[in-house]
Amino acid sequence: MLSNIGIPGLIIVLVLALIIFGPSKLPEIGRAFGTTLKEFKKSTRELVSDEQPEEKKKNCYKNE
Predict the structure, then answer these.
(1) Do residues 26 and 17 make contact, with C-beta atoms less than 8 angstroms apart?
(2) How many CB atoms lie under 10 A from the CB of residue 26?
């Protein structure tokens, strides 16, 4: 979906965000978005790492 935007569309979105939120709020919004994305990636990694030992145990029992 985002691949259809292109460079001109991305520039328009950034200009609209600058107009709506103003230059003082954009760094705060970007920081909050980055923190949220980092926490999401961390929790996703934790979920995947929790599931992997269980899968290994299941595969171990199947091979016997």
Answers:
(1) yes
(2) 14
Residue 17, Cβ density class (10 Å: 0-12 exposed, 13-18 middle, ≥19 buried): middle
On whether the CB atoms of residues 26 and 18 are closer than 8 A, the answer is yes
- Over residues 34-58, mean pLDDT: 81
Q: Tokens 């030992």, residue?
A: 53
- C-alpha span between 25 and 9 (Å, rounded): 21
- What per-residue confidence (pLDDT) applies to 64? 54
In sequence order, which residues have a C-beta less than 8 Å from that of residue 5 and are 6 or more positions away? 13
pLDDT, tens only, 24-44: 998 998 899 999 999 999 999
The token pair that represents 56 in the structure block: 């290994």
